[in-house]
Amino acid sequence: MDSLRRALRAMCAVAILVAGVHQEVAAETKAATPESVRPVPVPGRSAKPKDRIYFTRIGPSRSELFIANLDGTGERQLLPSPSVDYNASFSKDGQWVIFTSERAGSADIYRVRTDGSGLERLTDSPWFDDQAALSPDGGTVAFVSTRERGTADIWLLDLRTHRSRNLTQGVGGNFRPSWSPDGKTIAFTSDRGEPHRRNDPIWELMHFTALYTMDTEGLGLRRLTPVDEVAESPQWSPDGKRIIYTHRIDDQHPRQIIQITLQTGARKIIVEGLPGGPSTSAQYIGEHEVAYTTAGTLRYTSGRQGSESIRAVHPRWSADATQVVYERAIAEPSAAMPVIAAYSISPRFELLRTGRFATFSPDGRQFLVSGNLPSEDRSISILDASGANVRTIFQNDKLVIGGTSWSSDGRLIAFGLGGFFERPVAPARLATIRPDGSDFRVLIQADGSSGMPSFAPDGRRLVFRALGKQDQGLRILSLADMKLSVLTTAWDNFPSWSPCGDRITFTRQVDGDFEIFTVNADGTELRQLTQDHGNLGNCLPCMRTEPSCNKSPTTGGKT
User: Fold this and answer.
1) Three-class DSSP category at 380
2) Could you tell me the residue ranges of all domains in the chain?
3) Maximum distance among all Cα pairs of the chain, rounded to whole angstroms
């Protein structure tokens, strides 16, 4: 479930649309993009999309697959990857590894022999295909895909006929299919019927998943665990009588590995007190021995020797318990790929992946990011629009950057600096710096968390989010006299000033959902723009002005 949630949810975190990019800038970007990570052209689609979106995806720029012995010795690369390969597993006979790769653009399913030969692409879809598992007879692939309905369903692909069919039929999100030893039943997790509940504090919407089984005809659905807890990555016992999975109550509690007996429904804790992070990838490697991982370390309930050095992510063990396959992020030099071309299913848009909190300068010729790569969040770098000429203007070892904003004249950058995205809420302050790295200045330093700033068009004020025990909402800071005024007092975030300077957009928590609002800069005329039963809490709303900021009595301008 982790990688699918990563791709479907995290991509909303930061996205910036740049419309009508100058032709010379577009040419520079194309030339600077490595061939190995360019999206594959789709026949009949425009090779030069008009609009460009820069976005952040929380995850590695490259990851490769490795095979090792159970104790981590004898490690070898399975095959080189120009992009990201992940979620690998063995066929039952141990001859094949099936995995997800984005080497051709969108995430698709591949298989390769365990010696790295015979690479074969099994799915070819612009949608997201992931989490594949081969049937015991090797003839059918169960995998998760967003094709057809746009939701995460479990599909079955017949490798002989190359025909696929939807098993779960669009009911909720469905993840991590696992075949029973006789090939007649599939265990999986699903968020169908999950409660609508948030963490404390309430920025994140919890994702609850229960454990289910279903036969290969889509019949006989059976729920095995509660819908208000989290079940992850089910795997069958060799005799088909038990299923093991990772369990947690919510994000505030440690994880457990639990075994459930299918005949009685009885649950037994196998391992408890596990820290948070990626799934434990728990799997039987015998009738009673369980292999799993914590923080990249291979572990075994039998006490056999594991490995603490290979940094294994999403490992899977062979049926004969002799080998383990896993993924590992491949570090890139900080300036190697600050802008990475990504696959786009729309001919209108070109997608470019870059660092966090990407923000363009007013003239559109350069932009800044929190770190040179998507995995970094403790520095600020400025790049040309092409992705070239990277220069770091601010660096620290401990504090996280929380939102960035250019002044309208391009001479000043505001940002949050502190313990963002931590629980409980950690202090964070508001700061400014010049694009050449000079004149660093802390504006606000308090016990609460101040971040996500946005400059007013006149460059004289900043709007930002405040969060603390007794302080929440949006605040406006006058840079001339450092006077602070309260704009809102609700669970509000990601403010953005309109180009005309009259209104501010932001997100607000309303009845369990985050919606997009606007308000006048003086606090009047609060308006709710969306009514969406989803999660807009981590999106950055913005306004654009067409064609001018001539104010009208009702809107204050065309914003």
Assistant:
1) strand
2) 63-329
3) 75
